[in-house]
Amino acid sequence: MKYVKRLLFALLSVFLVFTIISSLALYQEVKNQKVQEKALDELKQQRESERQNREYPVLGVNDEGEGVILMLKLKMVSGEGRILLDMNKTYLDESAQISTCKAVKVAQNITQTNLSDKNIIISFEVNESGKTQIEGGSGGAAICLALVSLIQERALNKSVLITGCVKNDHSISKVLEVKEKARCARNNGCVLFLVPRGQKLNISDLNVKEVSRIEDAMKYILY
After folding, report:
1. Residue-wise pLDDT tens digits, 161-212
2. What's the Cα-to-Cα distance from 97 to each of 3, 7, 64, rounded to whole Å?
3. If you ran DSSP here, which 8-state letter would residue 192 be given?
4. Most buried residue among 91, 96, 209, 219 by CB atoms closer than 10 A?
């Protein structure tokens, strides 16, 4: 009888140990599954954010006549077809605002996309303290290309930079202070600098190429 009791006790002990181990394994499996689901959800949110946002370096010149990099940030959200300029850190003069609107129009034309149900939020991030004023339309080509990449869900090659005004017929017109912008591009790791036709110049350690239309620039910057 004692032998039977001991056997039953041993079997019960084994059963309890097995149950505990199984429960722990199940708990760990559920925990791992939740971790994986969270990671997948974060990855999904990141990809969704990337689909709706673009960043691309835009070249300018400061008051001291030195070339500077401004990080263009584009975001496309549901809306009423408006272009919203974030003026918290920068101020765009009238010509820059007109150039921006023209760039958005050309991007829609190139992609044959109607953005009447979207709002385009545009901002510039600068390293300098205070509020930076952006003058002129030389960033138009860059803005247009960034928006095309956003609409078509294509990536931007940020080692290739561009300066130039964009016109309604998709052509890229001449700008000022190309040399200063080219030097800044080279000093910030640019390997190819695109300029309007007729404005090619020689800069050591930098490949400079002329482009006459936005479609030409797309071949080098979008992929």
Report:
1. 999 999 999 999 999 999 999 999 999 999 999 999 999 999 999 999 999 9
2. 93, 87, 23
3. E
4. 96
Given a contact cutoff of 8 angstroms between Cβ atoms, the answer to whether 189 and 159 are in contact is: yes
CATH code for the domain of 160: 3.30.230.10
Which residues face 160 on adjacent strands? 192
Give the chain's domain count: 1
207 belongs to a structural domain: yes
For residue 111, give its domain range: 49-221
What is the three-state SS of 37-106?
HHHHHHHHHHHHHHHHEEEEEEEEECCCCCEEEEEEEEEEEECCCCEEECCCCEEECHHHHHHHHHHHHH
Residue 17 three-state SS? helix
Contacting residues for 190 by C-beta, under 8 A, at least 6 apart: 159, 160, 161, 206
SS3 210: strand
pTM (two decimals)? 0.77
